[in-house]
Amino acid sequence: MRNTILYYANGDIDLDFHTKDGRNKGNQTMWFEGGKPYIDTHFLEVGIQHGPQLRCYGNGTLARDAVYEYGEVVYEVLFDKSGQITERKGDVPEKYRS
After folding, report:
1. What CATH number does the domain located at 2-92 have?
2. In the prediction, which pLDDT does 30 show?
3. CB neighbours of 11 closer than 8 A, spacing ≥ 6?
4. CB 48 within 8 A of CB 71
């Protein structure tokens, strides 16, 4: 397995990706310059998304909360930059129902 870590010119971490045989495997994490999280997701050995995926805006608020099961979206919740839910798809958890 190969681990790739890249940095912005100012030294802040940009991304931490794991690959095997040219495909994503394991956690894939990216940050905005300045250190705020951008995306955190997970891939199975065959390059298929599996498990939670969180994506944030540059201001640090959550933009997307989703869960994948063997490449298929179980649920997806999208948020605007103020943190308000704008869209729900699939079997969303109770905390996002209202």
Report:
1. 3.90.930.1
2. 97
3. none
4. yes
Tokens of 40: 């955190």
What's the predicted TM-score (pTM) here?
Answer: 0.88
Tens of pLDDT, residues 64-78:
999 999 999 999 999
Neighbours of 67 (CB within 10 A): 19
> Using an 8 Å Cβ cutoff, are 36 and 49 in contact?
no
pLDDT digits (tens, 9 = 90+) for 29-61: 999 999 999 999 999 988 999 999 999 999 999
Please say whether the beta carbons of 73 and 89 come within 8 A. yes
Burial of 25 by CB count in 10 Å (0-12 exposed, 13-18 middle, 19+ buried)? buried
Return the domain boundaries, the chain: 2-92
Q: Which residues contact 30 (CB under 8 A, 6 or more apart)?
A: 14, 15, 16, 37, 38, 39, 40
Paired tokens of 22 = 């040219």
